[in-house]
Design brief:
mainly alpha, Fumarase C, Chain B, domain 1, Ribonucleotide Reductase Protein R1, domain 1, Fumarase C, Chain A, domain 2, 19 helices, elongated, about 5% strand, 6 strands, 3 domains, two-stranded antiparallel ribbon, binds arginine, two-stranded parallel sheet
């Protein structure tokens, strides 16, 4: 059988053109969605009397048989048939005869492909939400073990104030929580139905778009056929959200790489999540977090790629839009792969509490607390800051930390110091007194984890 659109042509398509314009090598990933869309469409055509019910039934049977073949990987898709839509239609006509040609009544590939993409992203978005929850669950699991484990908190990668390790981990929980909310919210727009828009202007047949929306589970119908076939904002939105998710994954990965370095040794990634060096026998490399960090780049590329494809396109459909797919598939697969690895990597990592503790004992991250101490004794904060700066300098010069200085030394800097200063300086105390809502005190972290668990129960 020749091309489905061959009637107007007098020449065969150039082979290079055929290959260049075909999308079947990648859009075969939409086979299930394409069949689902066709099933709904033909059901509606039959119900509306646009085609006879017997024909609609034959087409449905044919499509279901093709679906089985697709599921069993038995279909050989052909480049000559360009894309998934024409491959399936051609298979259908081969299977059930010319009546299969009635399927495309009142429809165009333009509203068809947009519908397939909406269906695909709906499924994938829902699956990704679940995968994010697995990561959140893993973070909560580790956090619960480490409410009282202290780690230096950093600003400018300089030790700033000690924090609960659970608090640090839970920071990522909330980032992923917002990512999840963004995905959930995006479903509102993914759930708009393009089908029934025709090539760009609607159709002459008395179709029932509400019925198709009902069968396919769409909440809204695009009220403008030109918009429906030519915008890809739902994909741009998905790629933006995907990029944000990968940014969060990448930051966390960077911390894992730093924390598992010889210089930090705060955590150790499980052997099953690391790889060795082909030349240096001692090496245990954090390849997984490195690659998660690295893969973030392609998701940004996919977003920028699609934004650029769309920015100069006149309405309505243009073949450029076929470039919307590979980046979307790639971001979906990158997210799936990344989230699936992240959860067990978090679950299996070992936390070196003692090393973290040693780091805290050997730093000045309690300096803010003596400043606050003097403020509570009546000194203005700026003056207190100045006094403590001098104390820190003195301590550095005498090779001591704040807890090592004698009471006489403190008194030498200010008569306001009393012997309760040592309690104030203890790291546990430093953490415990940051008991404002959202702070790192164990009481707050426990409450935060409770809130977090509530988010997972929906
Ligand atoms: N493969 C095409 C795409 O992905 C399907 C729509 C083709 N429509 C057309 N008029 N050429 O965009």
């Amino acid at each position: 059988m020749s091309k489905l659109w061959g009637g107007r042509f007098t020449k065969e398509t150039n082979k290079l053109v055929e290959e260049f314009t075909a999308s079947i090598s990648f859009d075969q990933k939409l086979a299930k969605e394409d069949i689902a869309g066709s099933l709904a469409h033909v059901q509606m055509l039959g119900e509306c009397g646009i085609i006879p019910t017997e024909d609609a039934d034959k087409i449905k049977d044919g499509l279901l048989a093709i679906k089985k073949m697709v599921d069993a990987n038995e279909v050989e898709f052909l480049v000559e048939d360009e894309d998934i839509h024409m491959n399936i239609e051609k298979l259908l006509i081969e299977k059930i005869g010319p009546v299969g040609g009635k399927l495309h009544t009142g429809r165009s590939r333009n509203d068809q492909v947009a519908t397939d993409m909406h269906l695909y992203l709906r499924t994938k978005t829902t699956e990704l939400i679940k995968l994010i929850e697995d990561v959140q669950q893993a973070l909560i699991g580790q956090a619960k073990e480490h409410i009282h484990t202290l780690i230096p908190g950093y600003t400018h990668l300089q030790r700033a104030q000690p924090v609960s390790f659970a608090h640090h981990l839970m920071a990522y929980f909330w980032m992923f929580e917002r990512d999840k909310e963004r995905l959930i919210d995006s479903l509102k727009r993914v759930n708009w139905l393009p089908l029934g828009s025709g090539a760009l202007a609607g159709t002459t047949f008395p179709i029932n778009r509400e019925r198709v929306a009902e069968i396919l589970g769409f909440e809204t119908i695009y009220p403008n056929s030109m918009d429906a076939v030519s915008d890809r904002d739902f994909i741009m939105e998905f790629l933006s959200i995907g990029s944000i998710i990968m940014t969060h994954i990448s930051r966390f990965s960077e911390e894992l790489v730093i924390w598992s370095s010889q210089e930090f040794q705060f955590v150790e990634l499980d052997d099953s999540f690391c790889t060795g060096s082909s030349i240096m026998p001692q090496k245990k490399n954090p390849d997984v977090p490195e690659l998660l960090r690295g893969k973030t780049g392609r998701t940004y590329g996919n977003l920028i790629g699609l934004l650029t494809v769309l920015k100069g396109l006149p309405l309505a459909y243009n073949k450029d839009l076929q470039e919307d797919k590979e980046g979307m598939f790639d971001t979906v697969e990158t997210l799936e792969g990344s989230l699936k690895l992240l959860a067990p990597m978090i679950e299996t990592m070992t936390v070196n509490k003692d090393v973290m503790r040693k780091a805290i004992n050997n730093d000045f991250s309690n300096a803010t607390d003596i400043a606050d101490y003097l403020v509570r004794k009546g000194l203005p904060f700026r003056d207190a800051h100045e006094v403590i700066g001098k104390i820190v300098l003195y301590a550095i010069q005498s090779n001591k930390f704040l807890l090592d200085l004698s009471f006489e030394e403190y008194q030498g800097f200010s008569p306001l110091f009393e012997d309760d200063i040592y309690e104030v300086l203890a790291p546990e105390h430093v953490v415990a007194v940051r008991n404002s809502f959202g702070g790192t005190a164990p009481e707050q972290v426990e409450y935060q984890i409770k809130l977090a668990e509530g988010k997972l129960q929906r």
